[in-house]
Amino acid sequence: MERDLHALLGDLVIANRILAHEGVLDDFGHVALRHPDRPDRFFLSRSRSPELVTRDDLLEFTLDGEPVDPKGLRPYLESVLHARILAARPDVQATVHHHCPAVLPYAVADVPLRPVFHMASVLGGPVPVWDSRDGFGDTNMLIDDVPRADSLAAALGGGTCVLLRNHGAACAAHSIPAVVFVCVRMRDNAELQSRATAMGAPRFLTEGETRLTAEMLMGERPLDRAWAYYRARAGFGGI
Amino acid sequence: MERDLHALLGDLVIANRILAHEGVLDDFGHVALRHPDRPDRFFLSRSRSPELVTRDDLLEFTLDGEPVDPKGLRPYLESVLHARILAARPDVQATVHHHCPAVLPYAVADVPLRPVFHMASVLGGPVPVWDSRDGFGDTNMLIDDVPRADSLAAALGGGTCVLLRNHGAACAAHSIPAVVFVCVRMRDNAELQSRATAMGAPRFLTEGETRLTAEMLMGERPLDRAWAYYRARAGFGGI
Amino acid sequence: MERDLHALLGDLVIANRILAHEGVLDDFGHVALRHPDRPDRFFLSRSRSPELVTRDDLLEFTLDGEPVDPKGLRPYLESVLHARILAARPDVQATVHHHCPAVLPYAVADVPLRPVFHMASVLGGPVPVWDSRDGFGDTNMLIDDVPRADSLAAALGGGTCVLLRNHGAACAAHSIPAVVFVCVRMRDNAELQSRATAMGAPRFLTEGETRLTAEMLMGERPLDRAWAYYRARAGFGGI
Amino acid sequence: MERDLHALLGDLVIANRILAHEGVLDDFGHVALRHPDRPDRFFLSRSRSPELVTRDDLLEFTLDGEPVDPKGLRPYLESVLHARILAARPDVQATVHHHCPAVLPYAVADVPLRPVFHMASVLGGPVPVWDSRDGFGDTNMLIDDVPRADSLAAALGGGTCVLLRNHGAACAAHSIPAVVFVCVRMRDNAELQSRATAMGAPRFLTEGETRLTAEMLMGERPLDRAWAYYRARAGFGGI
User: Fold this and answer.
1) CA triplet B55, B58, B64: central angle to 5 degrees?
2) Which of A232, D118, C92 is nearest to B48 (CA)?
3) Do the beta carbons of residue B50 and residue B30 sit within 8 Å?
């Protein structure tokens, strides 16, 4: 188990670097991993840009978003965002909060983000939009307390992604490679949907296509191939 | 002949890397080459992202899409896509299947991709679109059996490119440098046509211009120059 | 105090490199820093592209835009632009003049640049546009004398940014990391607002959200994180 | 004089690399330089992508587009394009033919390319468009004979740029740094005009602004600064 945890924390660091390299995360945004042996705990970096995160930056948190031992480091202000999604979703092992530039237009314009190509079937359908003004009025936009985080987790529901109005997105999946894949395809679908919409009415995947294709893509074989590719591009060599 | 095969397999590896570097292929997509001495066989990598493909990843296939000797490696799920195009087109020596982001809008919006500048004359005219729903209904979108691959090959006809609705594209040509050139110009034309369309009604090449210019570009001189350039950019030095 | 000045001039060089690396500055544009001990003086590079600026290129200026000692070097033609903003705004310690490609459309089209996501709350609201034709007629577009620079400073008012019609922008803030952050978010907001507008009517931050979020982002913690990230990306290692 | 020629040929190689690095030239396109001592001769690379051009690739040509001594190397098919512009324009020392992706929409859509920001004042006004169908009908689109090259040179007139319908552009100026500057600003203006047009009616420079600003930018100081910057970005160090 110790060996497993060690390897998973290595993957958590690599996921931070991958999503920075792929243009999903920039100076802000973060990646969380549920503890493989204690489902009521998770790991997240201290307050640091994902591109710079190392193993020494990782802290352990409770599902209230509190660090078990802060070690004198400052956590992210939005740690609780991950905590409450993990609390609400026992099937989820990894979560991401990002402000990906390609995705943000769908958090600003009133147009649903919906799968327009097979790779984006993992979005599962039109992505819900959570609005902090509903129930919380004018805020500093952060998801930094339990009520807002619970409200966001409710908007995510059983899906893989949710948009935050004028702010960004959150993604959730059953493993680190899976959540990275979801983030990258959310980026790609947003870009593609925008380009296709500019040219005319886009044709979307059918519900049947979305379900059948997502099942295939969330399997070991495609995720292994994609993870090896993202790793290599982010400078971590082949597997 | 052995020498020729060795050099061609080296070019096949380089073509994988070039198309990854040029943004035509990403974690998915693949390049195939007909065996120079056995027209009923072809080469394709095992299931691996093109940017990471090496000579040791190459497997030999029959025109039914079956590996002659799998060597314990997993082939791509869509190997049969290449098999059936090569079966239908004796003039074709190399094929590519890709999901190039610049091209995908033309697989999503109902707008024909058509040559708008001289370099893209190699597309040959408006690019046909193949729709898996016609004849196959809701699927996981993969071209992983002979009937779908044959249907796609029929849509390609005698041309150099075909689009797959909500999925990607396939390209075919008489050599590796030629199919790489077709892929890159398909990317460039899609980008240019989208930009020009956003500004007003684009002027297309005439049929005569398309034919005369494609004949010139598919000659040894332009293809040699382009291949040397793509090779160098992908890190394989000059020739 | 000497130590402080030395460190600040190092940051001024790094800010030049960061803004070049982030695509805010190109061959033209510049960054100025008020002297920490003499508020009537400021530092600016000699006439050189920001990506190439070193500590030896820095010159000291008066608030009339004149070099205290030119050391035989050519100053920028627009040094006075920074001088007059610093003269008008005692709260400002650092200024930038740029022609960021993402921002320029808002200096060309008659559409106000306004915060569309939380990170861009630091723009403070719709960005004013200064037009050299108002009061100065046809010019060579440079802000190279005191009257034009004073007019521009008046248009900036108490804010963080102003646009120059058919030319570029100027930014001002209380520190080097803060003005770099403002520039990068001006870039991001322009890109995002353009993309969202192409898709439909964008939803903007409310006034309350803008104020609350900007107060949070202009604090030490977010600025430290962003500065460490920009530094690392520009090749200056972590902190 | 020998020393001068040697330095200028070095700059010609660097200009090839700069324009490849800046995304103006790709596998095709070329840069020519008039012989500093023999105005009826000029230098151009053999048929090779600009990114790969070295001093050994340079050949000397007459103003009919014929190589003085081919040295067994293949010239570009369109060498005569440069020859006839240099023949028609004694004030021009350097010319470029390119297919810059940002510029091409203006060779495809029926929208005039016009200076929308001060840096692009060097375009001089709306850029003329030359159409090979006017007078030559359906062709392979190349400018590979004297009549077509003379026709193109006539369309360029006394200006710095001309567009070739469905093909690309040609630029001309009084020195290598000047023609590089014109090409880069043609790229920037096209990108900016497209973005601004998508948002609303762009405001253009006035005729007076265009003239006054271009005079300033074509001076030694701005061109020196830009050339040092482009050189460094293309890997040739500072000056």
Assistant:
1) 165
2) A232
3) yes
The DSSP letter of residue B39 is: T
Provide the annotated active-site residues of C: 78
The complex scores an ipTM of 0.95
The type of residue at C66 is E
Task: Find out whether B172 and B156 touch, Cβ atoms under 8 Å.
Answer: yes
Closest residue on chain C to A142 (Cα)? C213
CA angle B113, B115, B117 (to 5 degrees): 135
Question: Could you tell me the two tokens for A135?
Answer: 């129930």
Do strands C58-62 and C94-98 pair parallel, antiparallel, or not at all (unpaired)? unpaired
CB C230 within 8 A of CB A28: no
Q: Which residues of D touch C (CB under 8 A)?
A: 116-119, 121, 188, 191-193, 195-206, 208-209, 212-213, 215-216, 221-222, 225-226, 228-230, 232-233, 238
pLDDT digits (tens, 9 = 90+) for C110-140: 999 999 999 999 999 999 999 999 999 999 9
Helix axes C2-21, C176-199, angle to 10 degrees: 20
Catalogue the E-assigned strands of chain D: 30-34, 41-45, 58-62, 94-98, 129-130, 161-164, 168-173
Q: Which residues of chain D have pLDDT under 70?
A: 1-3, 238-239
> Which stretches of chain A drop beneath a pLDDT of 50?
239
Query: What is the per-residue pLDDT across C152-179, written as a single tens digit (0 to 9) for each?
Result: 999 999 999 999 999 999 999 999 999 9
User: Does B3 have pLDDT greater than 70?
Assistant: no
Chain C neighbours (≥3 Cβ pairs under 8 A) are: A, D
Of B196, B222, B225, the CB nearest to D108: B196
| CA–CA dist B11, A207 (Å, integer) | 41
What is the end-to-end Cα distance of chain A in Å, rounded? 21
pLDDT number for residue A104: 98
Segment D79-97, tens digit of pLDDT: 999 999 999 999 999 999 9
pLDDT at C2 over 80: no
For residue C237, the model assigns a pLDDT of: 76
Q: Choose the closest CB to C105 out of D196, D226, D230.
A: D196
Cα separations in angstroms, D139 against A120, B216, D115, D186: 43, 11, 31, 26
Size of chain C in residues = 239
- pLDDT above 60 for B239: no
Q: What are the Cα distances from residue C56, in Å, to A38, A129, C122, D78, D152?
A: 56, 51, 32, 46, 48
Q: Helix C176-199 to helix A176-199 angle, to the nearest 10 degrees?
A: 60
Classify burial at D73, counting beta carbons within 10 Å of its beta carbon; exposed 0-12, middle 13-18, buried 19 or more.
middle
Indicate the average pLDDT of chain A: 96
Residue D182 CA to residue D159 CA, distance in Å, equals 11
- Min distance A108 CA to chain C CA atoms (Å): 5
User: CA-CA distances (angstroms) from residue B95 to B170, B187, C31?
Assistant: 7, 16, 51
Q: Name the DSSP letter for residue D46.
A: B
Q: What pLDDT score does D2 carry?
A: 62
Strands (E), chain A: 30-34, 41-45, 58-62, 94-98, 129-130, 161-164, 168-173
Q: Is the pLDDT of residue C181 over 50?
A: yes
Q: Are A182 and A230 in contact (CB under 8 A)?
A: no
- Letter for the amino acid at D207? E
For D129-166, write each residue's pLDDT tens digit.
999 999 999 999 999 999 999 999 999 999 999 999 99
Report the 10 Å Cβ neighbour count for A181: 24
Handedness of CA D174, D178, D184, D187 (dihedral sign): negative
In the predicted structure, residue C239 carries a pLDDT above the cut 90:
no
Give the whole-angstrom CA distance, residue A8 versus residue A58.
12
